[in-house]
Amino acid sequence: MKIYYSILMVLAIILNACDMKKEKSIREKAIQNIQQPVTLTEVQEYAIGKWTSLSVELRPTEDRTGSGSIQPTFLKRNFNYLSKDSFIGTITMYADNYGELPLLEFEFKGELKWGNEHPIAKGAWEIDYILNDGFAVTPLNPQAAEMLNAGLPEGMEPFENNVKKDILGQTFPMFHIEKDQIVSDYDLIYFKNGLLFMGAKHVDGTPFDKVENRPHQLQIPLMRVD
Fold it and tell me: What is the pTM of this model?
């Protein structure tokens, strides 16, 4: 009988410790969500961690064939800020509104360069994503692999379905990338109510590939997942 009560006491202590840990986690997350990072140092520290799209997003994208038309693109974003100086990002593209038909996944790795305060909101800052550590493409269905292979540069091995290929430093006309080119994205970053906002895409599909193309408004936010 004593052993039985001893076991019950141990279980009670463990459950109580688990409840306290859970309450602490909820409390810490609530405090984190009401924080409003404003200075560059505060924003850099607050960003560290993993962030993901709330749901499938819609954005305008210029047609890669050079037709000048604007195409609707459905996607989800995942960003992991490893430090104030480095990141890994993935963008998964879909053929439908609800993310049931995946097409492609892009993985970006590289440096972060911080600029001046951005005028869109107090606490918003200019940020540049320098893709100098990895730029990988994964076709997620056979049709996507066929599309990529249709415009394949000479000498590049064909893409295979569900196989990731790093094209960093390689010529890729479909993405307007030249040999040894380091792709950069000139963006902004802002936090509010525990959410991460980047720059809204230009309505004409213009990418953020030049300083003068840096966005002026805020996009659908990402939520923290760690």
Answer: 0.83
